Structures are given as structure tokens and as C-alpha cells.
Amino acid sequence: MSSILHKQLxxxxxxxxxxxxxxxxxxxxxxxxxxxxxPLKDAKATYLLEKLSESELQFDWFSAKFSxxxxxxxKLTEFRGQIRIRKDSIIWLSFSPALGIEMARLKIxxxxxFFMNRxxxxxxxxxxxxxxxxxxxxxxxxxxxxxxxxxxxQFYEKSKFRANIINDQYKLSTAERRKLKKFVKHGEDxxxxxxxxxxxxxxxxxxxxxxxxxxxxxxxxxDAYYNDFKDHEGQLFPFEITFEITADEKIVxxxxxxxxRIDEPKSFPFSIPSKYERIY
Length: 280
What we know:
single chain; 4 helices
């Protein structure tokens, strides 16, 4: 049983890293949309990106409870937990079974990833090179943070987007999106880019309703769908997010948020007991 839980939990962490963590339903899930009373008008990409920026969640601290439906190999596993974020600095998550004590913790910083499994008393420590080699993709902290809260990538260029209208929503597309040079670490210029990105926007709120990333060489895709937008302290936030990773295996992760708090400072405890064994 411990081995099964360990595998399921590790795959869940991998999903969140991909996204959460590609980290990676296409047709199975559709975003909730407001009724459009008049036909949409063509808009330039620069205008849409400006409106998107204005509508994004503004925060320095973010925390919430969550429940996860995780589907892998047609098997459903349910988790509960909590997430804490200090903007552009650290992402911290705690996982528990649907009913039970904490199973694992995950801590992500700008250059490191830490994972602690309380079931079999092991831990993992690595950098993004390790994560990207394992996932055979290209992610960083900015991408993960953006996917979790439904914002656009903030440290990547915005000059190559094209805009059009698809199914009563605005769609922004780019074939290659590079990280701004001042945020690229020395020697990583060739890796600091995102291939084939599409962003769908609600035409009334300009909130992101869907993001799609696709790798060039492989048929890997990450889709994120944002639904159930509610006003929280004057800002719209998606309380339901569905991630679908299409790679060698298909993984679906549905996240439901509750008890959201913005700009309430939190701690990020991550103390590894001395008896825990490190996994490489």
C-alpha cells in the first residue's frame, strides 16, 4: 500500500511541477463563459495583453486549501491539502489523503525543488535541470506560479503574439516565447523559452480561461482550464482549475480551491527528519 501511495503521490507532484511542476480536458472540459450580447470585434495583440495584465491577480502572498481529483491510467485518486505562495519566491504545498494525516510536502523555489514523502520516510532535492530532464520539457518557477493562479508568464517577452477570435473568445498565439534576458541565468539562454503557446481570454473580463503549451519535437501538450470565477476581495479568481497533460501517458488533475487568502504572510515549514533517506 505504501508503494502504491508513493507512486500516486509522486505522479501528483510531477503534475503540479509540470504545471504546478509539465509540468502537462482538451475536448473533455469546456470553460464557463459569459453570454456575449454583441459580436466580438477584432483587437490587436498588444491591446489584449494590456487588458490581460490589468485583470490579473495582484498579490504578494497567496494561500488556499485545495482538493485534487487525480486521474492516471484511468484510475482516480483524491487528495486534499494546502498551498502557500510568496510571489516570485517560493511555492509550498502539503498533501493529505481525502481523510488522514499529511502524506507529503513539496517546496519550490526559483532554483530548487524539494519533495518529502512521509509515508516511506524519503526526500528528494533537485534543481530545474533535474526536473526538466525527468519531464523532458522546459519549465521554471515563473511558469509554475502562473499556471497555479491563472496569470500570464510575467518574465517572458510579449512581442510575438498574434490575436484572433475563436468561439466567442479572444485567442493569443505565439510560436516561440523567450524569457527576458535580465531574468535568464548565465549559460541557460538556449533553454529559456516556451514553444507554441495559446491563451484564451474571456472577452468581458479578460481573465484567462485556457492556456495551452506544446513542445516542438514531441507531441506533448499541457492544457490548463480555468473555471468558476468568483470575486475575492475585489479580484476575480478561478476556484476550479483543470490540468491535462498529454505525453507518454495522459494525466488529468482537477483542482478545487477554497479558503483563499491574499496578502496574509505565511511560513513555509520544511524540516527533513535526520532518519529520512534521500532519493536520487
